[in-house]
Amino acid sequence: EYSVFFLICPLFAVPACSGHADGYSVRGALALSAEAVEAEDASRMFPALDERTRFAMQATVKARAEARALIERDYPESEKAQALAALGDAGQVATAAELFGRRCDPTCLSSFGEIVGAPTGQVAVGDELEVTTIRRRTLHMHAGRDGGYGIVWQTRETSAERSRASHELRLIQENAAIYRRRNALRQGASASSSDLDAKDVPSKLHAQ
Predict the structure, then answer these.
(1) With helix as H, strand as E and coil as C, how does the chain read?
(2) CA separation, residue 100 to residues 53, 97, 114, 124, 144 (Å)
């Protein structure tokens, strides 16, 4: 139902119908999105997203994975459950594609299905392209550093989330170091509470 629209692309004089050696053309990204919608699998659409969103989500998942490992290794048992919950859904997945698959639920995927189709026209809007599809709907696309285009999706939100995950990872690294010092002192024969610096108080993160 969706991918059939791409057969008509050569009939239109749209420069973006041509492919790129790296990344996706406008048409390629839309075609991949159509395939994901048909398969009802949002994770398959992830490579067709704007590079800025993909990189931000990948950085977030990486930071959450590092944070999770520190929490599981160094946090006391009484603190682990709450700290892990504070990592949110990005701390429960192995890849950014899996995270997008979780967040783009059937309603989200269906909304893409109402738009994606072969491109019939495009106009530059700032550093993005406003692309019209054969469905007579428009969406915005952005060219990555490799020249490949991706669909713009929650660029600001995912960028802010990446910054937050990076900041919280630093806090968790500091907390983990504190817990390691405390554990080492407890295991020492002459350990006492006075050996702990007064500033060695772990920070708390709020659940996502």
Answers:
(1) CCHHHHHHHHHCCCHHHCCCCCCCCHHHHHHHHHHHHHHCCHHHHHHHECHHHHHHHHHHHHHHHHHHHHHHHHCCHHHHHHHHHCCCHHHCCCCHHHHHHHHCCHHHHHHHHCCCCCEEEEEEECCEEEEEECCCCEEEEEECCCCCEEECCCHHHHHHHHHHHHHHHHHHHHHHHHHHHHHHHHHCCCCCHHHCCCCCCCCCCCCC
(2) 10, 5, 19, 27, 19
The 10s digit of each residue's pLDDT in 91-109 is: 999 999 999 999 999 999 9
Instruction: Dig out the tokens for 42 from the structure.
Output: 């949002």
0.85 surpassed by pTM: no
> Average pLDDT over the chain, rounded to whole?
85
